[in-house]
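As a warm-up, study this chain.
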Amino acid sequence: MVGLVSIVTPSYNSAKYITETIQSVQKQTYQNWEWMIIDDGSTDNTVALVEVFAKKDTRIKLIPLKFNAGPSKARNIGINKIKGEYMTFLDADDIWFPDFIENSIKTIQSTKIPFVFSSYKRSDEDLNFIYSDFIVPQRVNYYDILKSNSISCLTAFLDISVLGKKQMPEIKKRQDMGLWLQYLKEIPFAYGIQEPKAIYRIRKHSLSRNKKRLIKYQWQFYRDVENLSVLSSVYYMFQWMYRGILKYKN
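Now compare it with the structure written out below.
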C-alpha cells in the first residue's frame, strides 16, 4: 500500500475537540497521508491549535477562511487542493481508530470496490458511549441512501484514482449525502465494513439528530438537488423519518 491518502476536514470553533481528532490521525498505522484542515472562520483558538500541529507535521495543511462559508464550501475548497489517490473526510470533533486508513485501503483492494465506509461507535461530547455501535449495511446503492444515509462523513473512503474528484452540493445540510449519491449514480454500490473503525461524537443540540428541524432540508434535497418528483419525495421522506427514528432508538 503506497497510495497517498487525502483527508479533508472543515473546522469551526472546534478548539475543545480538535486536538484529539488530530492525534487520532497521527496515530494511524498507515502514514502516507496529507490533511487539508479548512478553518471556516473560527472565533475561538482553533486556528492557533492547528498551527502548532502543522508546524511540526508538514502533512497537515491549514487553510484559514476569513469568513464562515459553511461546511460544504469548506470541504470543496479542500477537495480542490488534495492530490491523493484516495479521499476521505473527518469532522473536527470525531476520532478514527488507529487502523481506519489501513483497513479501508485493504478493503478496497480485496473487494475491488472503490467506495467503502465503516461502522462506528457513538459517544457523547465526553466520549461516553451513549448508544449502541452503529453497524452499517454490507452494501448500499443509490436508492438505499435516499432512504437513509448510512454513510457517515467520518468513515467514507473513496478511491478517486478510479472514481475521480467530485464536489459536494453547496447546500446548508445533506451535502455529504449529495456527494455519495453522485458516486452511486456511477457504481452499483458502496461496501460497508461491519467492524467499527471510528468514534462519532454526538454534540448537544446536534441538528443531525433533530429530525423535525431537518425535514425542510431533506425535502429541499429530494426536490432541488436530486430532482425527484413530489410522489417520490414523499415516499423517500417517510422512509428517511422512520429509519432515522430507528437509528437513535438505542
